[in-house]
Amino acid sequence: MNTQLVESLVQVILSLSDEERVLLGEKLSTASQAETSAEPQWTEEAVAVFLSLGRNAVPGRLKNTAVHHDRYLYSNPE
C-alpha cells in the first residue's frame, strides 16, 4: 500500500471526533465481515460515513493537488 495514502488516511481519521471514530470503527468492522460474502455490503449509513470523510477533510498541504494528483500520490519523494 502507498505510504502517502496511509498517511492521508491517518490524517483524516485523526481529524474525526471521538463519536465519528467509533462509528467508523464499527462500519469498518462490519465491512471486513462482509468481505467474506460474494457481494459488498454498503448500507446507507456506511455510505454516509464514507462521504462525511470528504466533507470534513483536513485541508491539503500541497500546491496544485488537482493538477499534480498522480505525481503526489505515486511518485517517490525527492
Written description of the protein model:
This protein is mainly α. The protein has one domain (3-74). 62% of the residues lie in helices and 0% in strands. The chain contains four helices and no strands. It has helices spanning 3-15, 18-34, 44-55, 69-74. The model has no long low-confidence stretch (mean pLDDT 76).
Rg measurement, Å:
15 Å
CA-CA gap between termini = 19 Å
The total strand number stands at: 0
**What kind of sheet is the major sheet?**
none
Number of domains: 1
List the total number of helices: 4
For this structure, the quaternary state is single chain
Mean of pLDDT: 76
The stretches of 5 or more residues where confidence is low (pLDDT under 50) are none
SSE-based structural type: mainly alpha
Report the principal-axis shape: globular
Strand content: under 5%
Helix content estimate = 55-70%
Could you state the order of secondary-structure elements as H and E? HHHH
Task: Briefly summarize what is shown.
By secondary structure, the chain is mostly helical.
SSE layout and pairings?
Elements: H1 3-15, H2 18-34, H3 44-55, H4 69-74
Write a concise keyword list for the protein shown above:
single chain; 78 residues; mainly alpha
